[in-house]
Design brief:
The protein is α/β, with parallel strands linked by helices. It has a single domain (12-232), classed as Decaprenyl diphosphate synthase-like (Undecaprenyl pyrophosphate synthetase, 3-Layer(aba) Sandwich), CATH 3.40.1180. Helix content is 45%, strand content 14%. It has helices at 3-6, 23-29, 34-55, 74-97, 113-126, 142-158, 169-174, 221-232, 242-246, and strands at residues 15-19, 59-66, 101-105, 133-140, 186-189, 208-211. Strand 3 (101-105), helix 5 and strand 4 form a beta-alpha-beta unit. Helix 3 (34-55) packs parallel to helix 4 (74-97). The radius of gyration is 19 Å and the shape is globular. It starts with a helix and ends with a helix. The mean pLDDT is 94.
Length: 247
């Protein structure tokens, strides 16, 4: 029986978040430039999006470029932005064919004009699709996101449009960049690291974590199915006891 056949289609996560790590190390291990690892990583993105779409997973958020990544060498940042533009242009027809919708979160104003325009064009073109929504986290960090939310809430209070007593968890969530999506049920991180790296700190409070030593360029459909199976063997209690879940 294949991994796909083992998956219980009635117990799928609604939202999967992925920290795609290991492109550079994958390339270095093969004596290649880091850019080659990023190129191969794009192939993994395509394969995983196909797998998620085939399963019917509604949301897939991929940590594509963090706020901290701006600190990388200028030539690598430029190469990544160029790669992103080419990848989006190349993949848009397949997104339309597979009924996949693209969206993005993060400080998108920092992106180069060409990257921002290409991204927006794809978001608009795929907005009519009703299948899996792929969310690219670009120029994103959770601390930036939460800080921006606090500033907006504070401004509403200052203007007298919001009472301090009205601030609760649901309201904070409504000011985050992810307000249109449910919180992730499963976080996948490739590349052997076991940390969140400033990714969706608020939203991942009750997610299941799946860490693998596999570098992102080697993470394809079978590896994704394995992560889904891991999720399906977890008992999600949300603060309750196992006995309460049975009742």
């Amino acid at each position: 029986m294949s991994l796909l056949e083992k998956i219980d289609m009635n117990r799928l996560p609604q939202h999967v978040a992925i920290i795609m790590d290991g492109n550079g190390r994958w390339a270095k291990a093969r004596g290649e430039e880091r850019y080659v690892g990023h190129q191969e990583g794009v192939v993994s993105v395509r394969k995983v999006v196909e797998a998620a779409s085939d399963l019917g997973i509604k949301y897939l958020t991929m940590y594509t470029f963090s706020t901290e990544n701006w600190k990388r060498p200028e030539e690598e940042v430029h190469a990544l932005m160029t790669l992103m533009v080419k990848a989006i242009q190349r993949e848009t027809p397949d997104l339309m064919k597979n009924n996949v919708r693209l969206d993005a979160i993060g400080n998108l104003a920092r992106l180069p004009e060409e990257a921002r325009q290409t991204l927006q064009e794809c978001i608009e073109e795929t907005s009519i699709n009703t299948g899996t929504t792929v969310v690219l986290a670009l120029s994103y960090s959770a601390r930036w996101e939460i800080t921006e939310a606090v500033r907006q809430i504070a401004e509403e209070v200052r203007k007298g449009d919001l009472a301090v007593g009205a601030i609760d968890e649901a309201m904070v969530s409504s000011y985050l960049t992810t307000r249109a999506f449910p919180d992730p049920d499963l976080l996948i991180r490739t590349g052997g690291e076991q940390r969140l790296s400033n990714f969706l700190l608020w939203q991942l409070s009750y997610a299941e974590f799946y860490f693998t030593d596999i570098y992102w360029p080697d993470f394809r459909k079978e590896e994704f199915y394995d992560a889904i199976l891991y999720y399906q063997h977890r008992e999600r209690r949300f603060g309750k006891t196992s006995e309460q879940l049975i009742l």
